[in-house]
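Here is an idea for our session: we take a single protein and study its fold together. To get us started, please write out a protein record for me. Once you have written the record down, we can walk along the chain together.
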Amino acid sequence: MNIYISGLSYSTNEANLNDLFATYGAVSSVKVIADRETGRSRGFGFVEMADDTEGQNAIDGLNGTEYDQKTISVNIARPRAERPSNGEYRQRSYNNNFRRY
């Protein structure tokens, strides 16, 4: 089960998150999402748990609790929405917006 965690402290790292969820069962993977430019946590992450029952227990036990001085939200992760590639975005034409003097 893939679990989404939001409201994380910027100091929370993957090892801390792994320890938190390991109390509910076997953790397959942990990923804290970091800003590309600064490398600092963006305040959310994902935990993959091998067993769905253990994952649901973790969600039920941790959602709305305080962790690292922040109240976290823990939910089942939704699949990422498909995004069109750059070529498929409609681009605005600015040619008709120039003033002529």
Q: What stands out?
A: The first strand starts at residue 2 and ends at 6. The radius of gyration is 20 Å.
